[in-house]
Specification:
The protein is an alpha+beta fold. It has a single domain, classed as Alpha-Beta Complex (hypothetical protein yedk fold). Helix content is 20%, strand content 33%. It contains eight helices and 15 strands. A hairpin with a 5-residue loop joins strand 4 and strand 5. It is globular. 34% of the residues are buried. The mean pLDDT is 92. Keywords: Covalent protein-DNA linkage, DNA damage, DNA-binding, Hydrolase, Lyase, Protease.
């Protein structure tokens, strides 16, 4: 499960790199670690507004849902959704066809289990630029948005740094943004993107174990830390 992300970039950098504006610019703040287990919001583009960033509560809720986020998340965790979920979960309905979004992040985390110990890794683009990950969204009874990130199978590169689970966020390159958000895109094309994700030039580095052991955060938490007997990270090669 992907339950922590990073979006540690300034609003101005996002606006410049993607050519976007924010609907509520004063509400945006960089966040070194976004913890989805504590009600949090993500910066998203939606099919309704493909060039203006808004905010969505992380954790997909049913369309028109009236109760609190934490009530629903105690019954089922919807921070992440898979293609199978979207195809078989009744209340998700036509989310893939009619409610796609892109969340803007600067990195995510993977976890390696080795010799009885766990090691966190921070994964980002080699360029260290922000990027898009795919999701679906619903509008709630009060007008707010909720979203779930679509996950896909771990590729060969990330398997070296992630063996606790087999799912990672679905990265959507800038070149595929319009295809992902277009209402004209056919379902089989969307399924193809999820099942055969576009390649991204990624870098993975081990970070301090305090990240998840004690839930401690500090400014340098994302900096590489090297351990004996585990991979020291690396760059994807394709």
């Amino acid at each position: 499960m992907v339950y922590k992300l990073s979006n540690a970039v300034e609003r101005e950098q996002i606006e410049k790199e993607f050519g976007l504006t924010f609907k509520y610019p004063d509400l945006y703040t960089p966040d070194i670690v976004i913890n989805g287990l504590q009600e949090a919001s993500l910066s998203v583009l939606t099919m309704e507004n493909t060039n203006q960033v808004t905010f969505a509560i992380w954790g997909l809720l049913p369309e028109g849902y009236k109760e609190d986020w934490y009530v629903f998340q105690q019954m089922t965790n919807t921070l992440n959704v898979t293609l199978h979920d979207l195809q078989t979960t009744t209340w998700m309905g036509n989310s893939l066809q009619q409610g796609r979004c892109l969340a803007i992040i600067s990195g995510f985390f993977t976890y390696l289990l080795k010799n009885g110990k766990t090691y966190p890794y921070y994964v980002q683009l080699i360029s260290e630029s922000p990027f898009y990950v795919a999701g679906v969204y619903h509008r709630l009874d009060d007008g707010f948005l909720s979203c779930g990130l679509i996950t896909t199978a771990t590729d060969d590169f990330l398997k070296s740094f992630h063996n606790i689970g087999d799912q990672v966020p679905l990265i959507i390159p800038e070149s595929a943004k319009d295809v992902w958000l277009s209402p004209q895109t056919e379902t089989n094309v969307l399924q193809g993107i999820i099942e055969n994700p576009p390649k991204a030039k990624l870098r993975a580095n081990p970070i301090a174990q305090e990240f998840f052991k004690k839930n401690i955060l500090y400014d340098s938490i994302l900096q590489p830390v090297f351990y004996e007997d585990v991979p020291n990270g690396g760059d994807s090669n394709f």
